[in-house]
Specification:
With about 325 residues, this protein is mainly α. The chain contains 13 helices and 4 strands. Helix 12 links the parallel strand 3 (about 260-265) and strand 4. Helix 1 packs parallel to helix 3 and helix 5 (about 95-105) crosses helix 6 (about 120-125).
Length: about 325
């Protein structure tokens, strides 16, 4: 038996808890290999599969409850942060919103199997104001499916896993270096692709102030709202914007080419909108631009504008009253 297996048997439960906790908190550290190892070792009763499942579910609940609480109290600011640091920015808020729009809390049943969906699902559930009891019910069920599924796979493919462990043990430190190199290369490629996309985005996007100037000047740009769910009548939407999915917009053949086209989404990095803009440019639409900051930037700008209008109104009212008093005194 290799030293790795002996080490796992001796410290398996604490290691499993930490691995899953860190993964669920958002670190790019896969926990699936630990669950597979638990399943493989449970064949010969070297490890307790029920104990492994219980520890895995508990770790998931600790991490997800933390995200749920932060999402409930921080809302869009937390989602903005997760979107900015995500290695898959296009899959952060948009894909999760799409899933929640279609399936609701049932998304939590499979979210742990989908990269990019896992970390954002819990805070988005918190931001959507669902009850904590319902969240814990669905999240615990999804965690149970996640842990049991991987442990069952490890149980069924025990021989193959043992062969892989033996091969890695035979390679020794070289295997660890190879794994570390491949992991670093993976992260490097993701970060490079992200930076290239964001650089292209910065060159083409339009600010909220520029868009408001166009609207105030009487221009009529085509504005497309790419968000997944309008969220009812209270959801903010830019005046004149047309709500349309990215797939529908990409397939549309009725978009005029002689007008400015503005696209926006919910992600603060505007990555989803940027991808749509780039695709439209590839089709010959040269006047398409994503909105800098997305709907959150428009919301902040609108709130600031309303405050300025209120202050101006109060100042005008006070000035009018002062003039009336002055006229009354003079007369």
């Amino acid at each position: 038996m290799s030293g790795l297996i002996e080490f796992l048997i001796a410290y398996g439960l604490p290691l499993l808890f930490m691995a899953i906790l860190l993964e669920q908190l958002g670190l790019p550290l896969p926990a699936a290999p630990w669950l597979l190892a638990v399943g493989a070792l449970s064949v010969d009763a070297k490890f307790s599969a029920p104990a492994g499942i219980a520890v895995a579910v508990f770790a998931c609940l600790v991490a997800d409850s933390t995200w749920f609480y932060l999402g409930r109290h921080q809302g869009n600011r937390l989602l903005a942060l997760l979107c900015r640091i995500s290695l898959e920015p296009d899959s952060c808020v948009r894909r999760t919103e799409n899933a929640f729009t279609r399936y609701g809390l049932r998304t939590l049943l499979v979210s742990k199997f989908i990269p990019g969906l896992n970390t954002v699902a819990a805070p988005l559930a918190g931001a959507s104001k669902v009850s904590a009891r319902r969240f814990l019910l669905f999240d615990a069920t999804g965690s149970l499916i996640y842990a049991s599924g991987y442990i069952l796979l490890g149980y069924c493919f025990r021989n193959q896993i043992e062969q892989i462990v033996a091969a890695l043990a035979g390679i020794g430190k070289g295997a660890l270096l190879l794994v570390a190199f491949l992991f670093a290369a993976y992260l490097g490629i993701k970060l490079w692709r992200r930076q290239m996309l964001l650089r292209e985005l910065r060159m083409t996007r339009i600010t909220v102030a520029e868009l408001r100037q166009k609207l105030d000047a009487g221009e009529s740009p085509l504005i497309f709202d790419l968000r997944a769910n309008p969220g009812g009548g209270e959801e903010l939407i830019i005046p004149g914007a047309i709500r349309i999915s990215m797939d529908e917009l990409g397939k549309s053949t009725e978009i005029p080419r002689d007008r400015d086209i503005i696209v926006y989404c919910a992600c603060p990095n505007e990555v989803s909108a940027a991808r749509v803009a780039l695709k439209l440019r590839q089709k010959g639409f040269t006047r398409v631009r994503p909105l800098k900051g997305g709907i959150e930037a428009w919301r902040a700008h609108t709130a600031q504008h309303q405050v300025q209008v209120q202050v101006s109104t109060v100042a005008t009212t006070e000035g009018t009253k002062a003039n009336e008093v002055k006229l009354m005194v003079e007369s």
